[in-house]
Fold this sequence. Notes:
The chain folds into two domains: 1-29, no CATH class; 31-224, Rossmann fold (3-Layer(aba) Sandwich), CATH 3.40.50.2020. The chain is 33% helix and 18% strand. The protein contains eight helices and eight strands, in the order E-E-H-H-E-H-H-E-H-H-E-H-E-E-H-E. The radius of gyration is 17 Å and the shape is globular. Residues 7, 9-10, 12, 20-21, 23-24 line the site of one zinc ion (ZN).
Amino acid sequence: xxxxxxxxxxxxxxxxxxxxxAACRACLPRLLHRCPQxxxxxxxxxxxxxxxxxxxxxxxxxDRCLALGAYxxxxxxxxxxxxxxxxxxxxxxxxxxxxxxxxxxWDTRLPDALIxxxxxxxxxxxxxxNQSLELARELARPLGIxxxxxxxHRKxxxxxxxxxxxxxxxxxxxxxxxxxxxxxxxxxxxxxxxVVTTMATVNEIASLLKKAGxxxxxxxxxxxxGIDGIRTGT
Length: 234
Ligand SMILES: [Zn+2]
Ligand SMILES: [Zn+2]
């Protein structure tokens, strides 16, 4: 611990490098049971080696989704402070917690690169920063993985996804992203996003990455929305 800070949630003292006290960290909504592919929270564990019904019916383009937790309090509040109010200490605290989760999952096979989900330049100008890029930066440094910001771009602005159904989201994102540059030499990458809801965005990018020859695409995010396939939040 390098000094004392103030917990973002309860204002108690906490390790400066954490921004959350031990009690608040213990209350984060962990996904006890989840689908090993799409990462959705499940009420009961799946038999070993199996995936959820939604993944069986419609396999996602990515191989695995890892999340810090479910999209229930206090994660939405912490993410909103980071994303909409620009409280970067909240983003850093969340990134550190996610890092601990990833370290246990990636103990043998680290991705070759982290790719943040790009924001359209017009939205980037309005917000001032890309929350996925800030998050990816915080993860890349301690993991020693390159951050690839040049491969994937958003080529057209799309209306916000909030309030759209899964089908509407997929249509909304069609041809929204493009891969640039020379043929990609990564074999295994992880896409970084803040919240994964219907998977439309990460699925769209993952399918482009797979078409470009990348063998393994993982998704890492702060929160995974939904329990048992039922949407519970935005
Ligand atoms: Zn606290
Ligand atoms: Zn699944």
